[in-house]
Every structure is written in C-alpha cells, then in structure tokens.
Amino acid sequence: MEGTTDTGPVRFDTKIAVLLRADLETWQRLNVTAFLVSGLGPQVPEVVGEPYEDADGVPYLPMFRQPVLVFEGTKETLRTAHTRALTRALPRSVFTADLFTTGNDRDNRAAVRAVPTADLDLVGLAVYGPRNAVDKVLKGARMHP
Q1: Cα distance between residue 47 and residue 53, in whole Å
Q2: Model pTM?
Q3: 78: which residues sit within 8 A by CB, 6+ positions away?
Q4: Residue 2 φ then ψ, to 5°
Q5: CB count, 10 Å around CB of 21?
Q6: Per residue in 5-20, pLDDT tens?
Q7: I need a labelling partner for 109 at 20 to 30 A (CA). Which of 1, 6, 33, 139 fits?
C-alpha cells in the first residue's frame, strides 16, 4: 500500500521521474518536462489524484498524487536510461530533438516513428514504476539543480 497514515509522512512505493539532457535551454527543459509527463495520466491512471476545489467551491483539475522528480544527464546517460527502461518494460515517454522542429502531435509522432530506437536523438525521457526499478534506470543521472 502506498503512503502511510494521514498524520505521518507519505512515502510512495512508486516514482515518477523525468531525465533531461543537460545541454537544453531553460525553455526547452520546461517544455520537454511538460510534454513528457502529459501522457502518464491517461496510460497509468492511478498516478492521478482527485480533483481540487478551493474554499469558494471553484473546481480545478486533478494533478499527480506524487512528486515528479527531475534529473539531468548527458546524451549517453539518456541513451543508457532509455535502454534500461525498455529492458524493465516500464511505462515511458520520450522527447527527441526532432520534436523541436515540429508543430503538432501528428508530426511529432511521425518524427519519432521515422527513427530506429537505437538512433533516437533523445533530449528527454520520463519513466514511472517501482522506486527501485526507476532508480536503476536513472543510475548515473543527477538531480536537476
């Protein structure tokens, strides 16, 4: 069971993590992170919490029920993490350098589909799964400053 009592600290058995290539511009890091995690909720609905509501009854969309940890690494760190995520069959999303030149979802999917797995120019990777498995995928990456 994830978490503890309502009064104690919450520890999750799972982890949501994003790995970004260290040489990205700030706007690229933010954009890539948003795109990478956007697919997680529909594919892994248990990561999404309940909707929010303020004291005046104004409703807000639900968010992830646990933190998203952001890491950075080299191009090789990304390639290795991607291979590890595939080997462990963890839910994952990728963002390639080609996606900076497209302007819509159809073209984004076509750009990824056009490149063999080993040749993807990865700039971002998101993974979700058991804490230990995600930690092994991210070995060699460092927490984003």
Answers
A1: 19
A2: 0.89
A3: 19, 21, 122, 123, 124, 125
A4: -85, 145
A5: 21
A6: 466 777 889 999 999 9
A7: 139
